[in-house]
Amino acid sequence: MSNIVAIVGRPNVGKSTLFNRLLERREAIVDSTAGVTRDRHYGKSDWNGVEFTVIDTGGYEVNTEDIFQEEITKQVQLAIDEATSIIFMLSVDEGLTDTDQEIFEMLRRSGKKVYIVVNKVDSATLEVAATEFYSLGIEKYYTMSSATGSGTGELLDDVVADF
Ligand code: GDP
Ligand code: MG
C-alpha cells in the first residue's frame, strides 16, 4: 500500500512551491528533460528512504483572488478522500483567514491525520507572528519557508514516522 500525502490550503500560501521542492531530487533522477513535469499535480517523493506520493491541489485555476470558495472546498474534499495524510498549509504573511478556518473545519471532521504548516516563515521574527495560528485551537503547528526549504525536514520526519 502506498502512502499518499496531499497538500491543501487556500491559493497563494505556497503549496506548489513545497510540492516542487519535494519532487525535485526525484525528478532530477527520473526525468532527463528539464521542465516537462512543471504542471503535474501528482508526484513521487521520499524521505529517509520512505517513499510516498504527493498531491498538489489548487493548481487548476489561475492564482487570482477571486477563486471560488466552492472550488477550494471541492479540492479539499478530494484530498480527504484520496490521501492518507494531509498537509494543511497556512501563510504567516496574510495570517488566519475565514477560508483557512473553513478548510480547517473540513479537515478536522475528516478524521485524517493533518499536519498544520505555517509557511513563509522566512525569519525568526516571523516565528513570533506565527503564534497567531494557535487561535485555531491547535496544540502544534510546523513552521516552514518552502521557498528556502527550511522546516521541511522536521515536518517530513513526522509525516513518514506516522505512516
Ligand atoms: P499555491 O497557490 O499555494 O500553490 O502557492 P505557490 O507555491 O504558487 O506560491 C505563491 C507565492 O508565494 C509565490 O510567489 C511563491 O514564490 C511565494 N512563496 C512560496 N513559498 C514561500 C516562502 O516560504 N516564503 C516566501 N516569502 N514566499 C513564498
Ligand atoms: Mg499552486
From TrEMBL:
Domain EngA-type G: 3-163
Superkingdom of this protein's organism: Bacteria
Binding site for GTP 1: 9-16, 56-60, 119-122
The protein's role, per its UniProt record: GTPase that plays an essential role in the late steps of ribosome biogenesis.
Similarity remark: Belongs to the TRAFAC class TrmE-Era-EngA-EngB-Septin-like GTPase superfamily. EngA (Der) GTPase family.
Record note on quaternary structure: Associates with the 50S ribosomal subunit.
Name used for this protein in its record: GTPase Der
Native organism taxonomy: Bacteria, Pseudomonadati, Bacteroidota, Flavobacteriia, Flavobacteriales
Gene assigned in the entry: der
Covered range of the whole protein: 1 to 163 of 436
